[in-house]
Amino acid sequence: MTVTYTAEVATSHFGTFWRLLLRWKGSVYKLLWVELLIFVVAYFTISFIYRFALPENHKRTFERISIYCELYNNLIPMAFVLGFYVSIVVTRWWEEFMSIPWPDKMALYVTANIHGHDDRGRLIRRTIMRYICLSFVMTARAISTAVKKRFPTDDHLTEAGLQTENEQKIIEGVKTNNSKYFVPLVWTTSIISRARKEGRIRDDFAMKTLVEELNFVRGQLGGLLNYDWINVPLIYTQVVTMAVYTFFLSCLMGRQFLDPQQGYDNHQIDFYIPIFTILQFIFYMGWLKVAESLLNPFGEDDDDFEMNWLIDRNLQVAYLIVDEMHSEHPDLIKDQFWDEADFTLPYNAASEQFKVTDPHVGSAADIEVPEHASEFVPLASIPEEPVHAISTPQDVPRESTAVRFNNLSSRKRRHRLNLKNSEILDRHSPRSMTSQQEEDIFMMSDLSVEKAGVVDQDQEAEAIFGGNPSERTLTSDSVQNVSECKT
Question: What is the Cα–Cα distance from 21 to 190, expressed in whole angstroms?
C-alpha cells in the first residue's frame, strides 16, 4: 500500500513535481475531497442566504459578524501548532519504520556459524529462522489491522505453516496476559545452546554473536509494541484538531464577500468564489490529514507499511539464506583484472556521459606551500616561554623538559630501589623487626640516594646497607643508623 514515486523524481527537470499532482492514490485530493466538498457547500449556502434571503437590516448584522470573525480568527496560531505537530508525527513515523526487524543479518549469522549438511543441521537452521519470523508475525498481528485480518487466530498461523500444532498448544499454555511474542525467541536460544553442545557451533564467540543478534531482534519487536502503546499525547492531538476545524468554521463567516457599497475595508470588490480560502483549506487541512495518516502507519491507508508483504518476504529470504544457499558459492576463478592494477570498468553509450574524468581527491589537494615555509623547524630552536608567564591551576611554575626528565628518572630509580629493598627484607630481616623499622629502611633509601648521587641498583643498596651486595644483612646497628638519619 506504500506509494512510491522515487523513480519519477530521480532526475530533476521542468515539470517533475507537476506530474505528481496528477496522481490519485495517496494524494491530497483523495484525503481531502470529502472535507473540501462540505466546506465549499457550507460556504456557498451561507453566501446565498446573505445575498438573497436576508433583509437589509439583517444584512448589516451579518456583515458585522463577518468582520468580527475575520478579525479574530487570525489569532489562532495555525502554522506553529500544526507545523510542530506534523514534525513530531513524521519523525515518529520514520522511527517506527526503522524499528521493523529484518531477519537477513540473523540468517547470515546462522548459515555462517551453524554447520552441517545433514538433515539435523538443516532442521536447526530452518527452525531458528521460522521462530524469528513467527515472533515477528505475532508482534505485527498485535499492532497492524492488515496482519490481524490475515491471521485473526492462532489456528491461522498453524494452517499457514508458521507454527506446528504442538507449538500452538505450548504457546497457548503459557500463563500470561501479555503478548507472547517472546516465546519463539526463548525456544531459539535453547536451540542455539543445543547446537553448541552438539558441536555444530564451533566456538563460544559464534554462539555469543547469534545470541546478541537475537536480542537485537527482540529489542526491535519490543520497540514496535512500545510505539503502539505510547502515542503522541491525546491532548496535543485534540488541540491541533480543534485549532484547524474552529479556524475554518470561523472562515465560513469571516471570509464572505460583503456588499462593496457599504465601504468596508478589504471589501471593495465582490467575488463569488473564495479562491485563496479554498487553497488555505487544502494546505492546512491537508497538513492535518498527513499527520492523521502517518500517526499509525500499521493501518490500511495508502501510505501505511506493507506488513503482509514483509512477512512473506522475510520468511522466503530467510529460508533461502540458511537452507538453499547454505555453504554454496560459485567456483573460485581468477577475475578479469587479475594481472591488471590500473583498470576502468567499461561504459556503454547511455552511461558514457556520467563518466568522471577528474575525480575528487580532496579539497586541500591543490594547495601549495611555499618552499621557505615547508621546512621543518628544529625542536632545539623553539624558545621556552618564561616561567612567570605560565602557571598551573595551583600557581606552580611549569617545569622544563630537562627537569621533568630528571624527576622521572629519579622516581624510576627509587621504584627499583624499593623493589630491591623489599627482596632484602624478605631474605634477611629478623622476624622481630617491626613495621616502623621497615618504614624507616624505605625512608632511608631516598635520603641515601640523594646524598650519594648514585644510579646503579647495587650502588644504591650499598649506600644504604653497605658491604658486598651478596652478603648484605640487616642488623640492629643498621636499623639504629636509619633511625638516627631519619631524626
Answer: 54
